[in-house]
Amino acid sequence: MKLQIIRNTCPRNCYGTCGILSYVDNGKLIKVTGDPNHGFNQGRLCAKGYAYTQYVYHPDRLKFPMIQKPRGSGNWTRISWDEAYTIIANKMIELNQRYGSNLALGYNKFSGNLGILHYATEGMFNSFGPHTKTFGNPCAQTGRLAIKNSFGDNYSSVPENMANASLIVIWGSNPAVTNVHQMKFIYEARRKGAKLVVIDPIYTETAKKADLYIQIKPGTDMWLALGIAKILIESGKYEEGFIEKQALGWDAFKTFLEKNLTITEVIEKTGVPLKAIEELTSLYYSIKPTVTWIGLGLQRSHFGKSGIEAINSLAAMTGNLSIPNGGLYFVHFDVEQFPLTLLNHRGPDHPAIPYSREIDISDFSESALSLQNPPLKLLWIASRNIVSQDQNLKAWEELNKQMELIVTVDLFMTKTAEQSDIVLPAASHFEEEDLHVGYWHYWLSINQKAIPPFYEAKSDLTIARELTTKLNELSPGFSNFPADKEPIDWIKEELTPEMMELYNIESYKDLLEGPHQKKKSNIFLEQEEQIRLLSPEKIAEGEQFHDAFAKENEFPYQLLTPQKLLKIHSQYEMNPWLHSGDQEMMIEISDDIARSHNLQDKMKVEVFNEHGMITGRVRINKLLPKNIVLAPQAGHDPINQLIYVKNENDQSESSVFFYDSRVKIRKWGEAHV
Ligand SMILES: Nc1nc2c(c(=O)[nH]1)N[C@H]1C(S)=C(S)[C@@H](COP(=O)(O)OP(=O)(O)OC[C@H]3O[C@@H](n4cnc5c(=O)[nH]c(N)nc54)[C@H](O)[C@@H]3O)O[C@H]1N2
Ligand SMILES: Nc1nc2c(c(=O)[nH]1)N[C@H]1C(S)=C(S)[C@@H](COP(=O)(O)OP(=O)(O)OC[C@H]3O[C@@H](n4cnc5c(=O)[nH]c(N)nc54)[C@H](O)[C@@H]3O)O[C@H]1N2
Ligand code: SF4
Ligand SMILES: [Mo]
User: Fold this and answer.
1) 142-186 tens-digit pLDDT
2) Which contiguous run of DSSP H or E holds residue 182?
3) Where is the 4Fe-4S Mo/W bis-MGD-type domain (predicted)?
4) Does residue 599 share a domain with residue 475?
5) Contact yes or no for 601/618 (Cβ under 8 A)
6) Structural domain harbouring 134
7) Is 205 within 8 Å of 176 (Cβ atoms)?
8) Same structural domain for residues 80 and 116?
9) Are strands 167-171 and 290-294 parallel, antiparallel or unpaired?
């Protein structure tokens, strides 16, 4: 068979959602490149993308379904798919009979593969009728709500247009690590004379490229944005025309800043020197078009919501949201414009229970533990590495004990899979069909099946089709999942006439020639659209949280755990092209912390708090703010054991406030001498 070139899409939870060209020789993936027809990644991939040939054929990939007895013992036995389905289906049926409904069955699915057909997991559970499902988003919910509060909807400017900006201000994002293709557009803007500002507590790879780097105390962006707004107001440097027509709440915002905020307070709270505040103020006023980028890092804190609304307000008053190539970047949720027929699949009605039970995925284990009548008894985990990436892992351990069956579908034996009863091997995106909409750029792309599945791996959709078939064999009518439907049928259903019009295609076949971009204006806020400026009440709320958090605490250091260049969260650690062997965890600390604990580079240390302890090697980072400990996610002994940050804010949904964690540090073994 001759060499084939096939279109794939990188399905990771990553800003790129890159188009891939896969070179397949005799059913084997031999090379991948970026798809030159994809306007965002433009023929390139990141290192993780280029390593896909190794990922797909990695010897550690799960090959067969396996069962572990007892759970957590490591005593795994290979079973057939039919055996796996039979065990799972029998348990589901038994729980249904015991409790009279399927509420004891639940899932935790998140971001391993963001393809639309991966909603098969949700679709499968829907097909059982009322069950236990999740809502929310641990990664982006707080930012999403903040953007919605400001603009009534969720928008984000077109990333390629960033190349036409004259000033780029990045608050709490590190694209040189997390969004490498965006750097191309940033560099292009800079070549044309644009200035780059980075606001981050850490002197990141992106900060290194900036014209102005502002080191800020974590969680204090609201004060910086308001301080700049105050100076602009006092010097009359704001866009009156825009404010009159498009801003709500201006008088209250202006009066509050004039009367209740001093720049001394801003300097004290943010740790940013006056000169830097003045410089950023002058850039924001004197340059157009300016783009403001609200990073996801900002909203991993209780202060994120008001911080983001303050930044939105600042960006708006400079007039940059309503001019071509100005604008605001966050992420968008355009995927929700599609029918999402799997996610929204309607299951059979239950005679007595009208709805499924919903728990917030940002507080999964504790919420799941609190469920009664019936308690949660069966957990299905897909596209998710809870034990590495979630918070409140003590509650997870409790929940694990309560489960009668845990099934994990994954490509690898993750820390979460190790704590399951059954693991099912998932197909990689080269082994299945899918459809992808990014959350950063506006390209729609298809994912073709390039190669046969690795050993006995199956896609999440195939698993849903086969398990529901087995369930109906054993208990007719248990599920109404349309198991006959092929992947292409689901893809076609997503491409309604409206969606095809929006993306300028006539059929899915157009996507086989390359991705298509959504029609979109280069103006962020059209004339008829408005912004609601941050209200004094919300500023007061932000202040209250700030003061509560700033109080002396038994655990003096703030733990920041942002993303790493060569991983996607817990993924790719086993790939030798990207990572060399077993690495000890590197704990970066400030000079100040090193001095007060008498620590030197490479010393072994323990980082701990009331939730747990991990060990690692010290690296002194002279550029870290004095009370910050910086550590990577995932690894053998995941740092998330130390992370349990309750959403004290209110009862509403939020992302997980990972970066509000506090720890202590000591020399290794010190506690035992
Ligand atoms: N290589 C790689 N790329 C990825 C990922 C990955 O794991 N690896 N993950 C993907 C996913 S799921 C996500 S959500 C994105 C996240 O990507 P980003 O939007 O870049 O967000 P984070 O990496 O969480 O944090 C970015 C920066 O915010 C800073 N920060 C923390 N607190 C504050 C604060 O209070 N104020 C300010 N101004 N800055 C603060 C951190 O120091 C960090 O440098 O990356 C995506 N891309
Ligand atoms: N300390 C700390 N923790 C964090 C963060 C932080 O900044 N600090 N960031 C948070 C953020 S932003 C995010 S988005 C979350 C990410 O949380 P998760 O989504 O749990 O993260 P991953 O580690 O990417 O785990 C995804 C799993 O899905 C598997 N997978 C991949 N493809 C498929 C597939 O097709 N089917 C199935 N069934 N499985 C598949 C992968 O092998 C992997 O094990 O982590 C959060 N955790
Ligand atoms: S991980 Fe991100 S940047 Fe890398 S290939 Fe995938 S989508 Fe593109
Ligand atoms: Mo994320």
Assistant:
1) 999 999 999 998 889 999 999 999 999 999 999 999 999 999 999
2) helix 182-191
3) 3-60
4) no
5) yes
6) 66-138+337-430+456-484
7) yes
8) yes
9) parallel
Distance CA 575, CA 578 (A): 5
Kindly report the CATH number assigned to the domain that includes residue 638.
Answer: 2.40.40.20
Residue (of 385, 408, 387) closest to 397 by Cα position:
387
Residues 174 and 323 in one domain: yes
Q: Same domain, yes or no, for 345 and 309?
A: no
Burial class of residue 671 in the structure, from the number of CB atoms within 10 Å of its CB (0-12 exposed, 13-18 middle, 19+ buried): exposed
Residues with CB under 6 Å of ligand 3 are: 10, 12, 14, 16-18, 41, 45-46, 48-49, 180-181, 568
Of 447, 234, 343, nearest in space to 226 by CA: 234
Query: Of all atoms in ligand 3, which is nearest to the CA of residue 41?
Result: 8
- Tell me, in angstroms, the distance from the centre of ligand 3 to residue 45's CA: 6
Give Cβ neighbours of residue 518 (< 8 Å, ≥ 6 apart).
Answer: 334, 442, 443, 444, 502, 503
Give 383 Cα–ligand 2 centroid separation in angstroms: 7
Q: pLDDT-based confidence at 650, cuts 50/70/90?
A: low
CB 615 within 8 A of CB 668: yes
**Do residue 260 and residue 154 come from a single domain?**
yes
| Structure tokens that stand for 356 in this block | 């499924």
CA distances from residue 53 to 49, 74, 184, 464 in whole angstroms, order as listed: 9, 28, 25, 27
Domain contains 6: no
d(CA 613, CA 632): 14
For the stretch 292-351, pLDDT in tens is: 999 999 999 989 999 999 999 999 999 999 999 999 999 999 999 999 999 999 999 999
- Mode of pairing for the β-strands spanning 557-560 and 628-630: parallel
Residue 548 in this model has a pLDDT that exceeds 90 = no
Asked if 278 and 351 sit in the same domain, the reply is: no
Q: Which atom of ligand 2 is nearest to the CA of 638?
A: 1
Q: How far apart are CA 417 and CA 424, in angstroms?
A: 9
- Residue 142, phi then psi, degrees to nearest 5: -65, -45
Using the atom order of ligand 3, give the atom closest to the CA of residue 17: 7
Peptide bond connecting 59 to the previous residue in cis, omega within 30 degrees of 0? no
CA of 641 from ligand 1 middle (Å) equals: 20
Nearest CA to ligand 1 atom 37: 172
Q: Residue 50 and residue 34: Cα distance in Å, rounded? A: 9
Are residues 130 and 198 located together in one domain of the fold? no
How much is the pTM? 0.98
What distance, in Å, lies between the first and last C-alpha atoms of the chain? 67
CATH of the domain at 183: 3.40.228.10
Residue 364 CA to residue 529 CA, distance in Å, equals 36
Euclidean distance between CA atoms 547 and 550, whole angstroms: 5
Encoded tokens for 568:
């996607």
Total domains in the fold of the chain? 3
Q: Are 531 and 313 in contact (CB under 8 A)?
A: yes
Q: How many CA atoms lie within 13 A of 89 on its CB side?
A: 24
Can you tell me the distance from the alpha carbon of 551 to that of 533, in angstroms, rounded to the nearest whole number?
Answer: 29
The secondary structure element, H or E, covering residue 666 is: strand 662-667
List the one residue out of 551, 548, 143, 549 whose CA is nearest residue 310: 143
Strands of the sheet containing 212-214, edge to edge, are: 212-214, 195-199, 167-171, 290-294, 327-329
Residue 509 lies in a domain: no
DSSP readout, 269-333? HH---HHHHHHHHHHHHH-SSEEEEE-GGGGSSTTHHHHHHHHHHHHHHTTGGGSTT-EEE----
